[in-house]
Design goal:
The chain has 297 residues and is of the alpha/beta class. The chain has 14 helices and five strands. It is 56% helix and 8% strand. The chain starts with a helix and ends in a 14-residue tail after the last helix. 37% of the residues are buried.
C-alpha cells in the first residue's frame, strides 16, 4: 500500500514548496513539524518583507502567512504578492488567532484563499494544505509523454484524483455517486476515497463540498451574479442552504463578503487627492493595481 507521504510527493513531483511567513519562531516550528509529516519542502520567513522577497525568488506552490506581524503585516504582504505578476497566482492561506469577521473579510479581499485558526489542529492544517496543493496540481499538471513504462501506484492515484476532480467540477449540480464516479475514472470506490484522503486530506465528497465553496467565494467576490443563481449553479437545494454553508465556511454571509470586497476595490481605485488634474491616476501605476486578484488554485 502506498504511504500518504509518497502520494503527496508523487502529486508534487518532489518539488513542493510551502513558504511559511510568521514572526513567531515557536509557531514556525509547529508548522514545520506538520509539513514534515507529508515530506513537504519548506522555506520560512520571519517578516512580511522577507516573505515577499522569498516568494518571488522561490515561487512556492503555497504560502501560509500570519496576519499580525510587525512592519508589513500579512494583509499588506498579500496585496503586494497579488500585484506581482510572477507570484500573484500562488494561493495564500492566512494564519490567525483572532476570530474577527472584519479581519477575515479584509484578508479575502486582499486575495487570500483560506484561513487557518490558532491554536492549530494538525488534521485541519494538513487537510487545507492538501486541498490547495492538489488543486494546483489538477490545474497545472502537463500531459506526460508516453514512454511505455508502467506508472507507479502513487502516480496512478494522482491521476485518479485529478480525473475525478475534473468530473466533479463539471457536474457540481448533479454529481455522480461514489460508485459511478469510481467506474468513470477506472477504479473502485475504496481506492478512490483512499487516494482523495491521502492527497487532499478528506474523502471525495468532502473535497466536493470545498470545491463548491471555493467557487462560491470566487463568484461572490468577483461577480454581480445573484445569489439565487449561484445557489442553483453550485448544486445547493435552496439559497438559504447556500447562505448557511457559506457563513459556516467563511464566517460571513455572501452579501457581507461581496460588500466588503467591492468596498476594497473602490477604495483602491479612488484617485489620490494630492494630485490635481484628470491624468493623476494614469501617472501613478500603483492606482492600477487590483485590490484582490483572486488566486483560487
Amino acid at each position: 500500500m502506498t504511504t500518504t507521504a509518497s502520494l503527496w510527493n508523487a502529486g508534487q513531483q518532489l518539488q513542493t514548496d510551502v513558504l511559511l511567513i510568521d514572526d513567531s519562531v515557536s509557531d514556525l516550528r509547529v508548522l514545520m513539524d506538520m509539513m514534515n509529516l507529508k515530506d513537504l519542502r519548506v522555506s520560512v520567513a520571519l517578516s512580511g518583507e522577507r516573505g515577499y522577497q522569498q516568494a518571488i525568488l522561490l515561487k512556492p506552490s503555497l504560502i501560509l502567512m500570519d496576519v499580525c506581524m510587525p512592519g508589513m503585516n500579512g494583509i499588506a504582504t498579500c496585496r503586494q504578492l497579488k500585484a506581482h505578476p510572477a507570484v500573484r497566482s500562488i494561493p495564500v492561506i492566512f494564519l490567525t488567532s483572532a476570530n474577527d469577521l472584519a479581519e477575515r473579510l479584509e484578508g479575502f479581499a486582499a486575495g487570500a484563499v483560506d484561513y487557518i485558526g490558532k491554536p492549530y489542529e494538525v488534521q485541519e492544517v494538513l487537510a487545507r494544505v492538501g486541498v490547495h496543493l492538489q488543486r494546483n496540481l489538477a490545474e497545472s499538471e502537463p500531459a506526460e509523454p508516453s514512454t511505455g513504462a508502467q506508472p507507479s501506484e502513487a502516480s496512478m492515484d494522482v491521476r485518479l484524483v485529478v480525473h475525478a476532480q475534473q468530473v466533479l467540477s463539471q457536474a457540481l449540480v448533479n454529481p455522480p455517486n461514489l460508485d459511478r464516479l469510481a467506474r468513470m475514472v477506472g477504479t473502485n470506490r475504496r481506492r478512490l476515497n483512499e487516494a482523495f484522503q491521502a492527497l487532499c486530506g478528506q474523502p471525495v465528497f468532502g473535497w466536493l463540498r470545498e470545491e463548491r465553496l471555493r467557487q462560491a467565494n470566487s463568484q461572490v467576490s468577483g461577480t454581480q451574479t445573484p445569489f439565487s443563481v449561484l445557489s442553483d449553479a453550485l448544486g445547493y437545494s435552496t439559497p438559504a442552504n447556500f447562505s448557511k454553508a457559506f457563513r459556516q465556511r467563511f464566517g460571513c454571509s455572501p452579501s457581507e463578503m461581496r460588500a466588503q470586497f467591492q468596498g476594497a476595490v473602490e477604495a483602491e481605485l479612488e484617485p489620490d487627492a494630492s494630485w490635481v488634474g484628470p491624468s493623476a491616476t494614469a501617472l501613478d501605476p500603483s492606482h492600477n493595481r487590483p485590490a484582490a486578484d483572486q488566486a483560487w488554485r
